[in-house]
Amino acid sequence: MDTHHSIDIDTLLKQKSFIELTARDRARALLDQGSMRELIGPFDRVKSPWLEQQGVVTQSDDGVIVAKGTFNLQPCVLLAIEGAFQGGSLGEVGGAKIAGALELAANDNRNGIPTVAIILFETGGVRLQEANLGLAAIAEIHSAIVDLRSYQPVIGISAGTVGCFGGMSIAAALCSYLIVTREARIGLNGPGVIEQEAGIAEYDARDRPFIWSFTGGQQRVDSHLADSLVEDDVAGIRDNVGRLLALGVPKVHRSQQIAHFIRALDLVDAQTQATPEMARQIYASGG
Questions:
Q1: CB atoms within 10 A of CB 247
Q2: Is the link from the previous residue into 161 a cis peptide, with omega within 30 of 0?
Q3: Residue 4: inside a domain, yes or no?
Q4: Can you give the residue ranges of the CoA carboxyltransferase N-terminal domain (predicted)?
Q5: How many domains does the chain have?
Q6: I need a labelling partner for 90 at 20 to 30 A (CA). Which of 83, 115, 123, 267 fits?
Q7: What is the pTM of this model?
Q8: Could you count the other beta carbons within 10 Å of the beta carbon of residue 208?
Q9: 35 touches 75 (CB < 8 A)
Q10: Number of C-beta neighbours around residue 160 at 10 A
Q11: Cα–Cα separations (whole angstroms), residue 153 to 117, 174, 179, 255
Q12: Residue 269 and residue 195 in one domain
């Protein structure tokens, strides 16, 4: 895979931006045309019971789209998080929708229906207003991904602009394969949290080139923490999903390479200011 290719202007003009789509439209764009059926949609009015009590306007789908359909004619469940609602944060309802859909997909496989999963990550992680309820829901998502990925690939996509942080960055790491754009960011803690806890000298949350150099899509692919770097283009992203699904279930998932990552972490010198190049070298040396 060429992660350093350039694009001519004619190609750029033909592209349709994936990032500019809503979560629901992203789901519709990826699934086979006409196959999408939304479950627990906005007209079902299943929304967070906790936000309104805290003076926060709710959304009738709680910011999570659950879509059933096909991808290249194979049964597929697609989970899309709407980054425009509460920063894509997950609470009790949204988390349960994702976990439940993944659990049902695993049951499909046990019953002879080869259902794959695609998860679109635009999320800051747990919803602070729902605290432990959100944490429990995200833990259930982790468990459901691990269950399903033993049968069929689970494809994660982080395109932008919110990124993927907190407990959902762990969910992304558990996926069989992870697709990112250059605009994507993936990290356990967001820039603002790191600056708050470690100080601006350690991490300046306003320094966008610095942030992307550590957590952006290019760096994550170069560090082998993501599998495919793509342009912001619907057709290109869909093609990459198809290519990765065709690879089947990995013999060893990234999250199972424990010895590799322990060796890498042993090389970290906390007294030295890290650089993107250093991070790439450390991950390479761990293998």
A1: 11
A2: yes
A3: no
A4: 1-199
A5: 2
A6: 115
A7: 0.92
A8: 12
A9: no
A10: 21
A11: 7, 11, 13, 14
A12: no
Contacts of residues 241-248 at CB distance under 8 Å and 24 or more positions apart, as own/partner, are 241/30, 241/71, 241/118, 241/155, 241/157, 241/179, 242/71, 242/72, 244/153, 244/155, 244/176, 244/177, 244/179, 245/71, 245/72, 245/74, 245/116, 245/153, 245/155, 247/153, 247/177, 248/153
Question: Residue 45: inside a domain, yes or no?
Answer: yes
Residues 158 and 205 in one domain: yes
* Cα 68 from Cα 79, distance rounded (Å): 9
H helix and E strand count, the chain? 11, 9
- Say what the alpha-carbon torsion angle 166, 170, 176, 178 is, to the nearest 10 degrees: 30
Q: Which domain holds residue 282?
A: 257-287
pLDDT tens, position by position, 43-88: 999 999 999 999 999 999 999 999 999 999 999 999 999 999 999 9
Q: Is 12 helix (H, G, I), strand (E, B) or coil?
A: helix
Pairwise CA distance, residues 138 & 128, whole Å: 13
Quick: pLDDT tens for 106-150: 999 999 999 999 999 999 999 999 989 999 999 999 999 999 999
The tokens for 139 are 């833990």
